[in-house]
Amino acid sequence: MHWRDSEAESRMAWRQSICGSEKGAYNMKKRVISWLLTGILAVSMLTGCGDSAKQDNGGSAETEAAAETQAEGESGNMVNGIDISEPYEATMVLIGSQQADQQIVLDKINEILMRDINTKMDIVMLSMGDFTTQLPLMLQGGDKVDLVPVINSFAGTFINNKMVLDLSGYVEQYGVNMKEAFADMGEELLYTGCINDFMFGIPVVKGASGVSTICMRADWLEEAGFTREDIKGVEDMDQVYEKVYANHPEAIMMWMTKGNTADSRYEVTDPLTDYNGVLLNYGEKPEVVNYFASDEYKELVTRHYEWAQKGWISKDAATTTDTASSAIQAGRAFSYYTPGGPDAEAANSAGSGTKMICVPVTEGQLTTTGYCWNSWGIAQASENPERAFLLLDYLYNSGEVTDLINFGIEGTHYVVGEDGLYHYPDGVDLTSSSYTFNQGWELPNQFRGGIWEGNDPDLWAKNIEATKSARHSCALGFAYDSSALSTEIAALTNIKSQYIDSLNTGAVDPSIELPKFLEELDNAGMQKVIEEKQAQLDAWYASK
């Protein structure tokens, strides 16, 4: 058994997941999310799972009993109704880079898998760049592949080209652990990886409350005489910026960059994949409208224009690609918009090299786009889909294997502190460790694994609670089919690329440029897209 790597990639770009506390971890996560959202615009999405993919689970008592039966290996050669009398070798694709001790770690993993489900696992390691190009070739070429990460922006392509299997029946028949894993946060989240009743993937278990925050340097905030309690919403930032700017006129108050501005960082809508027609007020009502013509968007860009006029937003924000964390480290910036969550302050502080305070400025929300941006599917070419699915379901419950994949071997690559948090052994750090995969965000259920030092020991529980308390869009589980709108989508994407960055960063006067933007969107077919989205949403909503 061996791990395979596409090429010798630089480790630093991929070392830290949500669990990691090393500098740059949160930036990595944000770059991945930004890449995914960009990809969504280029790939057609279809309608979400209907009732056919979701059936009665049989009750929690039955689920618990089945889980206990699996843990004991069941009588004979069956686990969850799947015959395991013959050993099976399953191949799992991971996004990351090769580790020095990966074979040693994989040997440990396979001891456990052979003991419990008579399975060995091989791992193909692909960088993100290779993932986007090589994985489709592997799936179409019939390579030995079983478990594959499915990014929602690629799901339509994977389905249309018959690269992945429909998992609907597998979930209902064999999905014991994954059903249990989603029970606490909401069973409906399990079914968000669907297109036209085709279940392309099982979402990873994660906290995804969709809250937007403004993260600020704690020292400058305190210096100006403010605390987090003084900020209830984005409208309270004027008084804060006024005083901080007086103390630090050399710095930018709100850091923004090209392609990373408020429409994807200040989230108060269900974007329905691409912002070409949205549901306002966190998806409260199933009424598709043009977000850019809404009072909410006009208020946002007007506020940013006023901030820019005062020098609080950089004049080149619409074109710069310098990250917020690098600007903070250099003393060039005070704050920035970023996705929030229970881990936000620890992650942003680590990434920025100074203590940050992250204050929510929107309510938490759950949307299909936000929750199911990465999931796990089974390749069409899998030699034994049932055994592959058994392994996948097993991973949703095994903290032991999750920790091995994510952190390596306890005592060698990490140790557990008295507080229960994981950290490097004495004399070992990020640069000297022989195993630094740390990509918990992409594993089936990182909540079954440990938490890295620098985070709250109760991070997983708090993520679950934040997700449960978030506002659910009325369209959670829905994604639309844009295949008949390719001409309009391309035209709208082009128009938005000309206006979005400059409007969102306050670089232009919205009283002049916003009407031009709206007129060009109308000419490019925005209304046609909205009408088609509405029709598909109505049909999906009626079928629930």
Helix run count: 21
Secondary-structure-based class equals alpha/beta
Backbone shape: globular
The fraction of residues assigned to DSSP E strands is 5-15%
Helix content: 40-55%
Low-confidence stretches: 1-46, 50-73
Largest β-sheet summary: 4 strands, mixed
Counting structural domains, the number is 3
Please tally the β strands and state the result. Answer: 20
Q: Which CATH top level class of the largest domain fits? A: Alpha Beta
| Rg estimate, integer Å | 23 Å
Q: What is the terminal separation in angstroms?
A: 45 Å
Query: Taking strands numbered 1, 2, ... along the chain, how are they ordered across the largest sheet?
Result: 11-14-10-15
CATH superfamily of the largest domain: Periplasmic binding protein-like II
The average pLDDT score comes to: 85
CATH topology of the largest domain: D-Maltodextrin-Binding Protein, domain 2
Quickly give the CATH architecture of the largest domain: 3-Layer(aba) Sandwich
